[in-house]
Design brief:
The protein is mainly α. 73% of the residues lie in helices and 0% in strands.
Length: 154
């Protein structure tokens, strides 16, 4: 056991790590944004790859190397209270709330896509203004989506 006391990272280091992870993942974000605008069922096609990649990035890398690439670049390590590395179980539990939110968001997007034609989907991004698009997407939400979204945002 390591006798060195745990030193918690400061807000700035954590924010920097988060921003670096965002930069590292930005090509993937661009692909998701592009796919979501051009393919009605993109959320369905991407559901399993998204889940696997999220587990790899936020569970495997955290267990194997002690953090995501952004954390490692700024010198942060995720550890247990006694200073030892976390296991897969702890890494998974740590990531579980974010993972569930992502899965629920994808299920909502899939439910929306199943209630719209390809022509209506095309009009969302090429004809309607942003406020009109937001209203139209809200109309397509399943009845359970609004309470779930409110709970996720609180």
């Amino acid at each position: 056991m390591d006798a060195t006391p745990i030193e918690y990272s400061r807000f700035g280091a954590r924010l920097g790590a988060l921003l670096l992870d965002g930069v590292i993942l930005s090509p993937l974000f661009v692909l998701i944004f592009w796919g979501g605008r051009h393919y009605r069922l993109f959320s369905l096609y991407y559901l399993i790859p998204q889940a696997i990649f999220a587990l790899f990035y936020s569970v495997y890398l955290v267990r194997r190397y002690g953090g995501t690439p952004g954390k490692l670049i700024v010198g942060l390590r995720i550890r247990r209270l006694d200073g030892s590395p976390i296991g897969y179980g702890q890494a998974f539990v740590r990531f579980l709330p974010w993972w569930l939110i992502g899965i629920v968001g994808s299920v909502i997007a899939i439910a929306r896509a199943s209630h719209i034609s390809d022509a209506d989907f095309y009009s969302l991004y090429h004809v309607l203004t942003l406020p009109q698009r937001v209203r139209r997407l809200a109309e397509l939400d399943p009845s359970w989506a609004r309470p779930v979204q409110l709970a996720m945002n609180s």
